[in-house]
Amino acid sequence: MLLNKTWRRRDNLESGAEIIEHKQGFSSGPVIRAKDLVVIKQGKTILKVEDISVFPGEVLAIVGPNGAGKSTLLTILACLEFPTKGAVFFRGHQVTRKNVLSVRREMAVVFQEPLLLDGTVRENVRLGLSLRGLKDDAERRVDTWLERFGITHLSGQMAHTLSGGEAQRTALARALVLEPKVLFLDEPFASLDLMTKHGLLKEFRGILEDSGTTTVLVSHDFSEVRALATRVIVLSGGKIQAEGTPDEISVDVLPKLKESVRPNLTGGWKN
Question: Which SUPFAM superfamilies match (predicted)?
Fold first, then answer.
């Protein structure tokens, strides 16, 4: 594992964090930090992470084999569930059952399935704003994100008639129209065909770079990681096995990991 490079990478992120945070209005330090996480389900420990941080403006990819605990870690960081033990901090404040709803309002999550409601594309993109009572400037924001994802012409089309790529663009627009402090992506490109995925990844990378949105991505496809991520964590057996840049992980880390620990990754892993 690239422990030295990992810590240098983390130091670099921390030293540069203040500039990015100033742009996004964050205070100093990680946007999200979780410590001493333990998740036990049906008597089995499925996640045990001592310390993990998400820094402002970065795209953090979490990769690992099936059953590694990737999606569980994402749901904990997104405050969709509480760990059995440990604590999650958002912008320096511990997330509790009293403040978790207000914290969730600062986040957005996109899953592998778009989970669109019966209605038009525009109604789906506007949904989160309506649920959160964000009426001021709502239509302008909807128009902006329909245009950014190239689906303005689908605005009046019913969601159930969309192709897989169109539906996922709608789901991403619905998340980003909320202007979340942190965007969580749980394999949102996994069900797309290769050409659709390639085009959407290229556009989405530009959107993330322009918006500076802090993002956590769970993926098994290293082409997605290379296209989007600035930092990668390898998870296996519920524990962090390695951490580094996409190049460090694909070239130096993964080939050295035991086969039982190594993620079953596709799309751009250099051996």
Answer: P-loop containing nucleoside triphosphate hydrolases
3-state helix, strand, coil in the chain (%, to 5): 40, 25, 35
pLDDT exceeds 80 at position 37: yes
Has residue 259 got a pLDDT over 90? no
What pLDDT is recorded for position 271?
Answer: 36
Question: Where are the domains positioned within the chain?
Answer: 1-106+181-271, 109-179
Q: Can you spell out the DSSP letters for 94-152?
A: E--TTTHHHHHTTEEEE-SS----SSBHHHHHHHHHHHTT--TTHHHHHHHHHHHTT-G
Q: Are 180 and 132 in contact (CB under 8 A)?
A: no
Residue 105: count other Cβ atoms within 10 Å of its Cβ.
Answer: 16
Q: Give the pTM.
A: 0.85
Average pLDDT of the segment spanning 43-72: 94
pLDDT of residue 7: 36
The token duo for 183 is: 């965007």
**β-pairing verdict for 107-110 and 93-94:** unpaired
Distance CA 127, CA 130 (A): 5
Q: 1-106+181-271: what fold?
A: Rossmann fold (3.40.50)
